[in-house]
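Quick question, first post here. What does this chain look like in 3D?
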Amino acid sequence: MKLKTFAFIVLSLCTVVFGAQAATRVELLAGANNIDLNQDGVPDLLVSATFDNNTSHPSQTLSAFINKNGNWFILPVPDDDGFTWSDFRLAGSSDKIIGFELHNIQGVYYLIRAMKFSSNQDNDDLTEAAQIKFSRYRVAESSEEPGAPVFYWQLSGSYTTSQTYSDVDQAFAQLKIDEFK
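> Answer (accepted):
Ran it through. C-alpha cells below.
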C-alpha cells in the first residue's frame, strides 16, 4: 500500500512539474520588463501599465519594443489595432471580454489574446457566458517591404473553447496549449 501511495505522489509531482514547463505564464511587473521576446540574446522591453479613465474598471495595457543593434522598434498590435494591447471590460460589469497574457512555451515567448466569441450575427449579449477564442502570437521580423513594420506579432495558432465562460480570466485559468492549431 505504501508503495502505491509513493508511486502516486511521484507521478503526480512529475505531472505538475512537466506540465508547468510545457506552458508557463510570465508574470509581468507594472512598468518596464526586460525580456528577450525574439530570442536574439538581447533584452527587449515590455511596458505594462494601467489605463484609468475614471471608470470602475481600469484597463491593463501592454506595449512591446524590440532592441535590434541598439535601435528600438515598437511592435504594432495585430489587426491594425494601434500599438498598445489592452484588456476590455463591459461597462457596468466586472466581466472581462478581452484579455491577454504572456507565456513562455518551450523557450519561445507568445502573447495570447482571449476574446469572448459570438457564434452568430445576432450580436449575442456578452454579459452572458460565451465561448472564448484564444489567439497566440509570437514576434517575427518582416521582409523588406515598404510600409511594413520591422517587427510584428505573427499569428501562430488559435482555438475556440467548447466550454462557455463569463470572463476571459476564467478561460485563461484552463488554457490548453495543445489545442492551438
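Residues 106 and 138 are 13 Å apart (CA to CA).
The chain is about 15% helix and 40% strand.
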